[in-house]
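Subject: for your reference before the review

Hello V.,

The reviewers asked for a structural picture of the protein, and I figured it would be easier to keep everything in one thread rather than splitting it across files. Below is the amino acid sequence we used in the manuscript, unchanged from the supplementary table.
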Amino acid sequence: MALACGIDCGAGCMVYSEHYWHASRIGLGAINDNKELLKGDLIPKTWKELTHPKYKDKLVQGHIKASGTSAIVDFFLVKLYGWEYFEALRKNNILTHQSCDQANLLASGERLVSLCDHQSTAPAQSQGLPLETVFPEDGVFVQIGPIALLAKAPHPNAGKLFIDWLTSPAGQTMHVTGGILSPLESPDVKYPPGFPDVKALKLMIPDPKDVGEWLPAAREKFSELFGGQGIASARALGSSPGALRHYRG
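And here is what came back from the structure prediction:
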């Protein structure tokens, strides 16, 4: 199956094979920075650069146990560079919060670079904060956001109406104004000025099964490096199919 941007993401990544869920949004995992305080060769072009000592005391990330975005970002960074990458980030004294969305922290200058996504930047810019997104040359990590109707939903017809609206051009326009890519390819989805040309990005798309198998051990490894053993892990990849209705729209 192809994304709205025309890039093949493989069978089943957009629609569960038995139509238990459909993609409603596509997040773009990337680097966020303070464009007023980060200048010249400090503006990163790749994820790999963040391991350089010049970024010491400038970085912030989310915790893999609390942030789904961070889980996808970390999955690909380990795949690309191994856990040595995160050991190098620790040497750079990276700050770890539960959420990777640290717009206020970046805007204040306490930290200058976060490992997160484009949808953190767009709302911050609308509030006048001096943030920008860098789409790394070594990969922009796709986060498929699913939508589904629970099998025992008390008002299934209302749920179907909401899903129909959210996956319509009107609903998708709401998403894209917040920095999220739409899975719907339609001229009626109105992207804001400055939205990146996703066809020019090196998109990397996760297989949910691979992420699910990797995640339990990765949570423990990440916690060994950065603490947070007491953080309750969000259940990976949503509900089981038996809890969802078949819904084809």
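For the response letter, the relevant points are probably these. The chain is about 30% helix and 15% strand. Helices lie at 68-81, 84-91, 103-108, 118-126, 156-166, 169-176, 208-226.

Happy to draft the paragraph if you're swamped.

O.
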